[in-house]
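Quick one before lunch.
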Amino acid sequence: MSTAVSRGTTPVPPARRPRLTVLSGPSGVGKSTVVAHMRKAHPEVWLSVSCTTRKPRPGEREGVQYFFVDDTEFDKLVANGELLEWAEFAGNRYGTPRQAVLDRLEAGEPVLLEIDLQGARQVRASMEDAQLVFLAPPSWDELVRRLTGRGTESPEVIERRLAAARTELAAESEFDTTLVNTSVEDVARELLALLR
Ligand code: ADP
Ligand code: 5GP
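Model of the guanosine-5'-monophosphate complex:
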């Protein structure tokens, strides 16, 4: 008689893989504000720091908001396959350093990317279990107010960003979840729940 314990046919649930979450939404909707609010209370939430050819805004620091690189350096990152995804947005290039993200996922920790629509699409194509979250403004007028009120871009750059915003808003249905940024506190809480 066999003493082996039968495992029967009970399905073994698949090991839950750590999730990569993408947060996208039009420029000025409040992505950075929401993420900063969430991380103030939960500094353990890891956010990927992107590389960009954009110049730093007042108060932005190297390695905190972005790694600021020139065009030649960005070309090299692309050529060496060091970016998980990258895109040109309103006249500058932005990309996610690949290795840091893979290291986090490998260590079993959730990963948050705050990137544009083109980047979100690339992530979806390469990582099918990624979770895509769209941050929407309460209204178009409020988006314009926020982007203009931030006071960090010239009128010409604001126009380019608003043109991109129309395309991004039209792509909302490609995302798994939409959060409407009426209250920073509410959205930060909802985003945290999605990450866990
Ligand atoms: P994004 O990172 O999406 O480009 P920001 O986080 O820089 O946007 O926010 C753009 C502007 O909108 C900032 O001045 C910010 O203070 C403001 N803002 C963000 N969320 C809200 C909100 N829920 N209500 C009112 N103003 C907001
Ligand atoms: P900003 O210049 O306002 O910091 O960012 C402009 C846009 O670029 C935002 O929509 C932001 O989410 C996006 N962005 C920031 N980092 C990346 C990145 O690494 N990849 C992509 N595709 N977009 C990014």
